Amino acid sequence: MPTPTLSASAVQEACKAVAKYLEDDGYYYDPEYKEAGQKSAVEAAAKDMGKTSAAVHRRLKAAHLNYNWTPHDFVGLNTQKEEGDLPPFEEVYQRHANANAKYIDQRRNGWQRAFVVPKAPFGVFFCGDPHGDNKGCNLIQLRRDMETAVVSKMYGVSMGDILDNFDAAGPKLAPKQAQNRMSKDEGFSFLRWYLGFPLWRAHILGNHDKWLGEHGQHLIAEWANNVKVFDWMARLIFKWDDGHFSFLAAHDFAGHSKYNPMHGLMNRAMQDGTDDAYIAAHRHNFAKGDFPNGHRERHYWFARAKGYKDWDSYAHLKGFEQQTEGHSVVAVINPFSETRLGRCHMFGDVSEGAEYLNYLRKK
Question: Could you give the CA distance from residue 89 to residue 66 in angstroms, rounded to a whole number?
Fold first, then answer.
């Protein structure tokens, strides 16, 4: 079996580990220059690294052959003049380096979730922005759609902006909160009911949710009852025994076009193309579509949920359109489809999506 290639970080780690001991006169590197009473820097470094001396020697050899590095090149790199009240940097580094690496890994990989599902038709309900404490929120439609999704045994994904939270957005927007009919306590009652509904597989935070700050986001996580809360975007992969379907759902995607309400979604698909469907909300308009990509042998679906704010005084003032359909999006997935095109169907009417899902289940 061939010996695996050593990475630059692996050989650098070995050089630095040996160099630390070479800064002490009590250690030697080359046995030819060993003085009386000196100990081996390589053996000491190997003990620190939890490896054999032979393994460390192999790394040092690779460092010299591949990069022309020796441990002597690293001597003194980690020493600095310590004075005043500042903590030594080496202590700072030891305290934060691994913690930072763990944080980066969590942020880069923690926004993906996989769900194992039976190989059978299923529906995913992407709930558009409720803005539940706003007096323009269509509470009747919202509750009806959520109940339809539950009794149809769909998987629910909340797309964000559950409340307005204008009072938490700063002095410019705070007066708008006073225009709402609901009190803050009534708004939080809605939030608790919404998060606790037996529907959700994921919650995505929108800009209005993030205005609540760290305390509010902890409250959302608590009331979500162990359902994962994602910051702005989530990759949700539904897997069955011999296949899968992947959604990239975001409160919104970068990019805007007044001619194409799905410009940001399509742009993301053309950039990475690793998901099957791209779902957004945020802009209070509905749109859906799909197209094949022959070069990648993929088919992409797109949808934007309008949300439940059926009257928006700001939109009225600025002359923006105010739609009254497409509050949420239902994606019906058919694992048995023999074509890519038939694998997914999108609906802007939750009841129609439920009816089609029931039809597939009865086939």
Answer: 30
